[in-house]
Design goal:
MOSC domain-containing protein; Pyrv_Knase-like_insert_dom_sf; M1 Pyruvate Kinase, Domain 3; MOSC_domain; 4 helices; alpha+beta; about 180 residues; 3-stranded antiparallel β-sheet; 13 strands; about 15% helix; 7-stranded mixed beta barrel
């Protein structure tokens, strides 16, 4: 597994929209998420989760997707670019889905995001482009569901993040815990 990568794009949306607009840079705020993004906050901000329990901690402050997934989807005929699937940070060169829970991603000169789990894609993704939900889900050799739509994290240290910034992966102590949906 590569321990380094690159930020390809950064995106945010001040409203609860499916896609997020690409930016020249974003500011991560410790304990909150992406400044100016609708999903920033100490408690859960995703509308379906607020309806369940508005006081639960926000384990989904930052959404990261690997650019390699976008490449794969484009090869299948989908029209997707950075931010289209709702991610804040589009990465390249890091196997995001293979990271254990608690991994720390050092972005740029000072921002640190701790990985909390997998994004669980919902039916909204098919409203964006029909068939996309099936394309971001798979099955392993045992028939277990594989969620490929990125990972979620919380901001431990804030800072400015922009395209071209380096990513350094810091694995947690073993034993490693597999990512589950959050």
């Amino acid at each position: 597994m590569s321990r380094t990568g690159t930020v390809q794009a950064v995106s945010l949306s001040p409203a609860h929209t499916f896609s997020k607009a690409s930016q020249s840079a974003i500011m991560l705020r410790a304990g909150l998420g992406v400044e100016g993004d609708a999903h920033a906050g100490r408690t859960v901000q995703h509308r379906s989760r607020v309806a369940q329990n508005p006081d639960q901690p926000n384990l989904r402050q930052v959404h990261l997707i690997h650019a390699e997934l976008l490449d794969e989807l484009r090869a299948q005929g989908f029209r997707v670019g950075a931010g289209d699937l709702g991610e804040n940070v589009t990465t390249r060169g890091v196997d995001l889905l293979g990271l254990p829970r608690g991994t720390r991603l050092h972005l740029g000169s000072g921002a640190v995001v701790e990985v909390t789990g997998l994004r669980n894609p919902c039916a909204q993704i098919d409203a964006f482009q029909p068939g996309l939900l099936r394309a971001v889900l798979g099955r392993d050799e045992q028939g277990n569901l594989i969620r490929k739509a990125g990972i979620m994290g919380v901001v431990l240290a804030g800072g400015r993040v922009q395209p071209g910034d380096g990513i350094r992966v810091e694995l947690p102590p073993e034993p490693h815990e597999r990512l589950e949906r959050v």
